Amino acid sequence: MLPKENLESLIANCGFGQSSVDGGWWEWWPLGGSGKDEVVMVEEDGLTPRINGEIPDLSDATLDHERLSERLATYGLAELQMEGDGNCQFRALADQLFRNPDYHKHVRKKVVKQLKHFRKSYESYVPMKYRSYLKKMKKLGEWGDHITLQGAADCFEVKICLVTSFRDTCYIEILPKDKNPSREIWLSFWSEVHYNSLYGVGADLDFSRHFTDVPTRAPRKKHWLF
């Protein structure tokens, strides 16, 4: 958890966004770039449907990474790098929740199950047929988006604290719907393409030394049943 004084400074010195499905979304993603896939402005009464943005060019990505690195250094945060295999959002969530990014499959399954069972809470924010979206999102390697982040916050009852490389909004909170979060978890989001797990500088990142609960491994099934 980020020290209170660091969090207050982070909010005071850079753009701040907060989200919750029914409570309205504020500055969820700032408007950036010129491509139509990057139009991500949000109205106060709900989300504007969006899809993941295009991969930035090398120059933009470098500037974004420098901006993010400076923010993390300023507020005493360090990234634990996640593999860039399309599962990075779920790996980062798994690392924060279970101290093991290899549980990303379990996290993805739980999030997709949340989105399926509470369809009415999320469907209007998805710019494609909802069934097709769920079918796509359950596949390994499919990038997570802002809907899966909200689904994770709701499913695991956590506040997701997101430090971004965005020029105008560097800190975003994703709050669970109709529930008080049981804990908070910290992720970084770089250049709209990659998530990492965040810890305070000097934190012990040796997984073997953590004894937090991990998901139970169920017997493997031929078909994935919700």
Automatic annotation (TrEMBL):
UniProt keywords, alphabetically: Hydrolase, Ubl conjugation pathway
What are the EC numbers?
Answer: 3.4.19.12
Q: Which Gene3D superfamilies match?
A: 3.90.70.80
Q: Which family does it belong to?
A: Belongs to the peptidase C85 family.
Upper lineage is:
Eukaryota, Viridiplantae, Streptophyta, Embryophyta, Tracheophyta
Instruction: Please state what the protein is called.
Output: ubiquitinyl hydrolase 1
Q: Name one GO biological process term.
A: protein deubiquitination
Catalytic activity from the UniProt record: Thiol-dependent hydrolysis of ester, thioester, amide, peptide and isopeptide bonds formed by the C-terminal Gly of ubiquitin (a 76-residue protein attached to proteins as an intracellular targeting signal)
* Keyword Nucleotide-binding among UniProt keywords: no
Q: Does the keyword Protein transport apply?
A: no
- A GO MF term: cysteine-type deubiquitinase activity
Concerning SUPFAM superfamilies, the annotation shows: Cysteine proteinases
Q: PANTHER family under this entry?
A: OTU DOMAIN CONTAINING PROTEIN, OVARIAN TUMOR DOMAIN-CONTAINING DEUBIQUITINATING ENZYME 11
Residue ranges occupied by any OTU domain in the UniProt entry: 77-201
Q: What class of enzyme is it?
A: hydrolase
